[in-house]
Amino acid sequence: MSNRVPIIEGLISHQKREAVSWHVPGHKSSDLFPKDILQLEWDQTELPGLDDLHHPEGIIAESIGLLEELYGAPHSHFLVNGSTVGNWGMLAAVANRGDRIYVQRNSHKSVFNAMEWLGLEPVFLQPELGTDLAIGRHVSRETLTEAMERFPGGVAVFLTSPTYYGEAAKIEEIVEVTNEQGIPLLVDEAHGAHFNANFGQRSAFELGATAVVQSAHKTLPALTMAAWMHDRFTEGQTRRLKHALQSFQSSSPSYLLLASLDYARSYLASLTESDWTEIRRSHERFHEELRQIEGLEIFIYHDWTRFTLRYKAASGAALLEALSRNGIDAEFALHDHVVCLLPLAYLDDETFIQYMGRVRLACDSLKENQANVCIEPPIKGKMKVSELEYPFDSMMDAEGTWVLLEDSVGCVTLETLIPYPPGIPLLFKGERILAEHVEHIRYYLNVHAHIQGGERLVEDMICVLKEGQL
Ligand SMILES: Cc1ncc(COP(=O)(O)O)c(C=O)c1O
After folding, report:
1. Which of 146, 161, 201, 208 has CB atoms 3.0–4.6 Å from 302's, for a disulfide?
2. How high is the pLDDT of residue 380?
3. pLDDT: is 370 or 434 the higher one?
4. Ligand 1: centre distance to CA 215 (Å)
């Protein structure tokens, strides 16, 4: 028997690299936590005086009250299983099996997993496409209206805002539509826990969404998996939400996660208007300096703590690797770009010089050889609104057969394929395969992307529904 501890060994060697964290979690390798906070002895259970997350009446209730005050929310909830469980909870609160949901097509896999297990029927809303970067942006009001006309009777709209790239949706426009229809707007705001008036971009909740989920751990000093949500649900929906969160979350929620949420909220609340101004200025100064590097482009949307870099003709993977070799770990790479998340804090001169030096070295080290050049991604999203060929529920026990990718166009897939990162499904179980899907799968295979769900994709095969069953 070995007494090796591979995970601990891996973390120690990662720590020894002393790389700069330009990725989640938002505490940036603990830099944003004060030294004396989060002691291991705080890993406790529901002892007298320590309250109970699933029926909060004491210290947890008090902390939630402060969160509600900060976000102006009638109800907030702490989540110990990330925005993932919040997305499940929001859907369970408003929909019954067989209900139709209008859902942004480039949402996170947690949304679609929840829909599958809850037996909900998605109407997919294709976002607009970027022109500067080949990425999904937001669902337009026109697309939503078209979906409601072609597929009436949906019980909720589900959007993701901001995107991974920090671009926020036009929430006020969408709220007008959902209010007219009298249905809730649910928003996965996993990447926007720090949005507020002082930041310069308000939260979707402030802008009128019915419920919003935020991964505090992504952009604030909170431990991974620590998240929260806010809602203005009716009494009945609130009852359903509480039941869902109690069912889907651990019955032993970690006090370390809860304490980190308490701290993340107080960190955000402690920032004054002038702190925000100073922090933002320091970030903007950094963006300016990056723009001076020849061949480097920087894209910034509503979230100024995150930016996307593109360097000459290099692929995102090559740029990510060059940054990593030079001591910067960024969030993720796709096509021709890399997404970077900076700390929600003032960048002092020392940090500034360290960051700039490392980026310059990374760019200089990127030789323009063929291996580094980006392969252009195909254009996707020709269909603005679409549905599954067969509902998730009917596919649960369906029998499949393996076919070559080239022969799969027109078949119904039994596999959901998710390039990871960023974790946005490319093809859903129950969807009819189009030539455009195959073109995309081939592209991701060519660039050696990691694809979750394609059991035999390396053999160029996909599992499809056996004809005549359903
Ligand atoms: C848009 C979006 N929603 C939800 C999630 C899931 O969040 P969590 O990791 O907090 O469960 C992610 C995770 O990357 C995400 O990017």
Report:
1. 201
2. 65
3. 434
4. 7
| pLDDT value at 405 more than 80 | yes
CA of 300 to the centre of ligand 1 (A): 20
Looking from the CA of residue 107, the nearest atom of ligand 1 is 1
Query: Rounded distance, CA 398 to CA 17, Å?
Result: 48
- What percent of the chain stands above pLDDT 90? 86
Model pLDDT for residues 85-141, shown as the tens digit of each residue = 999 999 999 999 999 999 999 999 999 999 999 999 999 999 998 888 888 889 999
Query: Residue 424 — pLDDT band, cuts 50, 70, 90?
Result: confident
Would you state the structure tokens that stand for residue 328, as one six-digit string?
């910067």
pLDDT at 132: 85
Indicate if ligand 1 lies below 6 Å from the C-beta of 108: yes
* 441 Cβ closer than 6 Å to some ligand 1 atom: no
Ligand 1 touching residue 126 (CB < 6 A): no
Asked whether 306 lines ligand 1 (CB < 6 A), one says no
C-alpha 86 – ligand 1 centre gap (Å): 10
**308 CA from centroid of ligand 1 (Å):** 18
The finding on whether 161 has its CB within 6 A of some atom of ligand 1 is no
pLDDT of res. 370: 66
C-alpha 89 – ligand 1 centre gap (Å): 14
Q: Which atom of ligand 1 sits closest to the CA of residue 84?
A: 11
Q: What's the confidence (pLDDT) of residue 254?
A: 98
Question: What is the pTM assigned to this prediction?
Answer: 0.96
Q: 345: which 2 tokens? A: 């804090």
